[in-house]
Amino acid sequence: MTSSSLLKDALSNVFPAGTEFTWNPAEVEPDERYLVIPNNRGPRWIIPKSPRLGLLALTQWNPYFISQRVMWLALIAAYRTNMLGFLPKIISFGASGATRLGWGHLGWSESHAPIPVVIVRTEFDHKAVATLVDPATQKPRIVAKIPIEGNSARMILNEADTLTQLAEETPGLAPRLIFLDREQSISAQEFVYGRSSNHKLDREHFRLATKLAREGRHIKLSDLVEGLVSRLNRIDNVDRNSKKLLEKILPKIADQTRIPAVRIHGDFVPWNMHSTKDGGYVILDWEDSVPEGPPFYDLFHFLFKQAAISNAKADICDKLAGYYFKSDYSKHLGISEAIFSKLLLYYLASRLIKNLDVNGSRSRVIFYTKEILSLL
């Protein structure tokens, strides 16, 4: 998908039908003027030109890397002083009628129109995530997710179903689902204020993992491994060395022992958790969630994902050994050290297969391969 077509699709899917777009913002009302912040894949952010309307939503965003954070703070400073539109590559446009049309397609039920602050996600599948700001209070109210291309529709529906289940099982653990259009695969959930969680595992992360245990339900690693083998065999033109390694280790972790099942978040990382006033966390972005999976999966992911994007050696066993509450979690679920080692290999194998399947970055394939080899 080209950059221009991605922008066109994002605009047509986010803004209500009947909105007329113009590349001359002076033709429309001030609250209908927008800026596009691009990256190397196309449009990254679509924001209101007025910082009065978009600033609060944008300041909730906190990039992981220090270098990205510095650049983001510079952009915010330019936006705050109405200078962002003068920077190179920033695109201006007008959305005529957007403040007069209904936004019910994104779950907005107020009589007055919201102002969207949109991030376009293109990491694996294309989707738009629109934070709807109430212009009366200038505060974010709703986060709507809109599919554009790929598997994003399925993932949005998966998250919506998961949020519905979590509201019954563990209220407060995740945002509240407000709206779902199953036919169009559009969902809306409450906006959650707060900062990202601690980048180091702490007791609260283990408490969250414990709350995700599925009481009375069990799984076997052997059954999960069968799923990995099937997925591996469906991948076309898979790297020969990677396949040889996986074929070597998967039989070793196909254990028949019944172990407690837990709900897997799927992307259990600091930037997907917002701190609450009582010291806990609300977990966001449940698109990759699985109803029943193996213990420790999300905790492994918390450590490995950060190591992978930093291209650093994970040393997961050493790190987990330093957490005295790791043994509490193991005892709570009845996980032996032998099973723990197989759970760790299962996690790494599943991540390697996923990256092979979705044409992930070569550096990620190398990273997970090295981590597997270090454990053999």
Structural class determined from secondary elements: alpha+beta
Using only C-alpha atoms, the radius of gyration works out to: 22 Å
State the domain count: 2
How far the N terminus sits from the C terminus, by CA atoms, comes to 41 Å
Sequence stretches where pLDDT stays below 50 over 5 or more residues:
none
Under CATH, the topology of the largest domain can be stated as Phosphorylase Kinase, domain 1
Instruction: Give the biggest sheet.
Output: 9 strands, antiparallel
What is the number of strand segments? Answer: 14
The second-level CATH architecture of the largest domain is 2-Layer Sandwich
What report would you give on this structure?
A nine-stranded antiparallel β-sheet has the order 1-4-2-3-5-6-7-9-8. Strands 10-11-14 form a three-stranded antiparallel β-sheet. The protein contains twelve helices and 14 strands. The chain has 376 residues and is an alpha+beta fold. 41% of the residues lie in helices and 23% in strands. It has helices spanning 3-14, 51-58, 66-80, 152-169, 203-211, 221-234, 240-253, 297-310, 316-321, 324-333, 337-357, 362-375, and strands at residues 20-22, 33-39, 42-48, 91-96, 115-121, 126-134, 139-149, 177-181, 186-190, 213-220, 258-264, 273-275, 281-283, 290-293. Helix 6 runs antiparallel to helix 7 and helix 11 packs antiparallel against helix 12 (362-375). The two termini are 41 Å apart. It has two domains: 3-190, Phosphorylase Kinase, domain 1, CATH 3.30.200; 203-375, Aminoglycoside 3'-phosphotransferase, Chain: A, domain 2 (Alpha-Beta Complex), CATH 3.90.1200.10. InterPro entries: Aminoglycoside_PTrfase, Kinase-like_dom_sf. This is Aminoglycoside phosphotransferase domain-containing protein. It comes from hydrothermal vent metagenome. Pfam families: APH (PF01636).
